[in-house]
Each structure stands twice: as C-alpha cells, then as structure tokens.
Amino acid sequence: MKITRRHVPEAAAKKLVAEGVPPFLASIYAARGVTDVAEVQAGLEHVLPHTGMKNVGEMANILADAIVRGDRLLVIADYDCDGATACSVMMQGLQVLGANVGFLVPDRMVHGYGLTPSIVDEAAKLEERPRYIITVDNGISSVDGVAAANALGIDVLVTDHHLPGKVLPAARCIVNPNQDGCSFESKPIAGVGVAFYVVWALTEELTDRGLEPLEPDFRIEHLLPYVALGTVADVVGLDRNNRALVATGLELIRAGQCPVGIGALARAAGRDPKKLSTADIGFGIGPRINAAGRLQNMTTGIQCLTSPELYRATELAAQLDGINDERRALQENMISEAVKLIVERADVDAWSIAVYGANWHEGVVGIVAGRVKETLYRPTFVLTQAQDGNVKGSGRSIPGFHLKHALDLIAVRHPGLLLKYGGHAMAAGLTLRADGVETFQEALETVCREQLTEDLLDQVLATDGELRPQDLCVDNAHLLRTLVWGQGFPEPVFTGEFDVQDARPMGKDRAHLKLTLQVGPNHRVNAVKFFHKGATPARVRIAYKLAVNDWGGKESLQLVIDHLEVLEELRLAA
C-alpha cells in the first residue's frame, strides 16, 4: 500500500478560517476541494432547485392530475436500501398529498431486477389495478417491462438515477438526471434523491392549484432523513448537493425529527439516533435494510421505514437485525470459499478477478465482491448460478476502472454473452449465458489489461498528514463524527509515528490489537487495530481515524487504525 498526503490549497484553507471554520477542519475541507463554507452547510437553501431536473415539472403535473381524479398509483421499488428509502419517500409524500397509492417490490429470485414483465403482470392482477406505475431507483433499462405495462393500459412514470442504455423505455415520463438533455448538475444523486425531487415538485404543483397536504404541518424537509439514509447507503458520490441533502437529513434525525422506523433501525444496530453519523448509516442501518432484499423481500424493510408505530417498527427492526445476522454468516462463508478458489487458481499476475461458485447465494454476491476487491485490490466479479440456469453476478471496481463501460465493451466484443447488465463506474450487475463464465473471465482480464496501468493496481491511502498533539482530542473526534463523509468526500485519515507503551490482544478470538500510544511527553492515547496479525510492536507508523470510545459511559479519544507498520518489535526479556 502506498500512503500519500492530500494537497491542501492554502488560500482556500485561509478563506474557510476567515468564514468561521476551525483551522483543524479548514485544512481537511480545503484538501477535498471546498472553497466556500456554503459548500458544506445544511439546509434546503443549499440544495439545488428541482426546476433544473428534466421532466420533473411534467411528472408533477401528471401526478397532480392523477391525485385529483383519484387514480390508483403503484410504486415499484428496487430491493436495496436506496430503493427502499426511495419507495418510503414516494409513499410518504404521495399519501400526505392525498394520493391513492400502494407499493410492490420485486423478488430478486423470482422477478429479477427492475420493472420486468413478470412484476408488471403481478401488478395488473392486484385487487386494485394501478392506473400508473411509478418506478423508484429502477426503470431506466426496463424496456420490456414498460412495453408490457403499456400493452395492459398502465402508464409508467420512471424515476431513476442509473445510467441509461442506448434505448430508453417508452414510459409516459422519465426523470433521471443522467438522461440526455438533463442539465441538473448533481449527476451522482441517488435514486432516493430523485424521488425526493419529484415529490418536492409535486408539492409545489398542488400548492399552486390551491390544494393542501392532508397533514397541515407537512414540509418537504420531513422526507430528508430518508434521503440521507439512502444516499449514504448507496455509496454515491457526495458532491455539494448530496452533502447538503445528507447533512440536512442528519440534522433532523439528531434533533428528534426522526421517522419512527429509522430510529428503530438505529437502535437495533446499537446506535443512538441523536448522535447518528454517516458511518452509523453505512455500517449499521444500511446493511440491515439491504439484508432483507438480499435474502428475503424488501417489503419488510419498507414497512419498517414507513411504520408510524414504535412497537411495530421495533418488531420489524428486530426481524431485519436477524436477517442481517444470517447475511453475515453466509457472506463470511462465501468469502472464504472465494478466496480459496482464487488461491487455487494461483494466477498471481491477474489484473482482474471473476470467481464462480454454483451454490453461492445470489443475494450476497455483491457484498462478497466488495470484500474480495478490498482484500486483493482488483476489479472483481462474484458469480453464481441463478434459478433459471443462467449465471448472475455482481462486480466492484477500483478507482480508474469504469465497470459499466467495461461491460459495454465486453458486450460488443462477445455478442450474446451478456444477457443483461447495468450499473455504475464502481459497481455493476450482470446475467451471463450458462456456459459463459470462462469467456467472461478472459474478456474481463483483457479489458483490464487494456485500460488499467500498474500504478492503478497499487492501492493508495490518501491521508491528511500528521496532527499536532493538541489536536488529538475527543472534541475533534466529536466534530468529525457530526460531519458528512462518504464516497468522493472521504472521512479524514491521519498519520504519525508513536512509541507503544502497552499492546495487548482483544476480542473473543484475540484477533484485534489494543495499543496505548505515547503522544508528547505527558499524553497517552488508546488505539485499536482490528484483525491484526504479526509482531507485537514497540514503535509504530500508523494511518488512523479519530473516534470516540464511550465504553462504560465515560468518553475518551480512540484512534482506529487503518494501516499499521511495525517500526520496532517488542523484545521480551529472556
């Protein structure tokens, strides 16, 4: 691993200090391209207006007319956290605006992804047949599904954020900032963000018509906790607009304006909603919602998120917690098997990984791909046999390699190999011919060798340099915890060399290392390195994050070590 320090534009840092940002934080922000304090502030006034999103006004008009007529609306959601929160935003928003609306979530194993003909057929057989289908976090690639809906006399309104293909579905209206001709500046917006903008535009359209929400106190900001949750969990790029959306949603949650379901999920994950951070979402709440879509059905997740009753939400959150435990066990077993297969293949010079296990669980391949990618630092696909006999898989990439574009190229070079695919730069999913695994492995390796360089295969840890002893304090750890960090706007990582005053293993299996580090002549700080193997150190060089340890009700600073290099080993007396 190569460790570098981020460049800090001094002029930007000084300007931020002059605007009231603490010097400690100003350097961190400046190193991430921030030049004005408004770029990191919460509030709807710092969010891009909905008017810049193509077709959002037209969709608001269609929905307003449907509400006035009493038409039945049906939301079709994706089965991940972004899809679940997008469905929650659309359902909560439409209901408070007086719509006759329900939702339906495809089953990953039965219907496949998105608005497929099979889920359209199921929607058409509902007791109350929909006049409109509204997709959230899906639909932009559902050419066949939209055609099936049209044939049944059901109009489709697509809200999505995924990259469009060459052919768009023949929907009544499409809102997607990544479609041609859309000038909306925040291209990385999550599916839940798109759903929020549609409800925002609809709220204003109905107000212009003299129609009021069913709840007089309703404000569009009330939906932003869902936007914060889905945006962070979907690991989309945190550009200025997404940061403002997330920051505002988090502020509402911490201030007690937290939806009952989100609060229940936070507590199930051992988090305090009044102290919720982006890390708590990414590693606590998000996985519990995603587990439902991976192993069972996302209906449970959406019911939890939208439940107004604490008892029911707590009950559903406990169910999701149990499903997540099952997901973790499956995941660890699959990771072990995948790494074993990779080692057996013994292709140490490979620039890509595409590993296949016929009996692996289809719902967990994406998260396993992510873990394998993190370990071996190569573009990675994990593949398994689907119920229809074909091969399904999910991929994760490294910076500098666009996974969706790579699949585009493979599809051109090997016609018929990819039956279906889609995704982003860093993540993608696909369906292969049953006999296509080996061909895909070779094709992926070829594209990787064409488009990557050896430098890109060398993992780089960008840090924010060394901290002064006085900056190593619990107040700074608290400050960083309250701020928005994530994809494209990474949490600060610092470096330093320290003498070790104490080192001991910790955890049930003694797999982790707890250290006491000397910081200056009269100051010591605790640190922890998870999954440490190797020598017991007497002096270390580390890359670390600031954290708050509140074990036993007493708060103290703790360094969470991302990378540890032993400079001197502890020598025990004979």
From TrEMBL:
Any one GO molecular function term: exonuclease activity
Gene3D superfamilies, A to Z: 3.10.310.30, 3.90.1640.30
Residues covered by the RecJ OB domain: 463-563
Annotated DDH domain residues: 73-206
InterPro entries attached to this UniProt entry: DDH_dom, DHH_sf, DHHA1_dom, RecJ, RecJ_OB, SSDNA_exonuclease_RecJ
Domain DHHA1: from-to ranges: 355-449
Keywords: Exonuclease, Hydrolase, Nuclease
SUPFAM superfamilies to which the protein is assigned, alphabetical: DHH phosphoesterases
Superkingdom field: Bacteria
Family from the record: Belongs to the RecJ family.
Protein name from the UniProt record: Single-stranded-DNA-specific exonuclease RecJ
Lineage: Bacteria, Pseudomonadati, Pseudomonadota, Betaproteobacteria, Burkholderiales
Gene: recJ
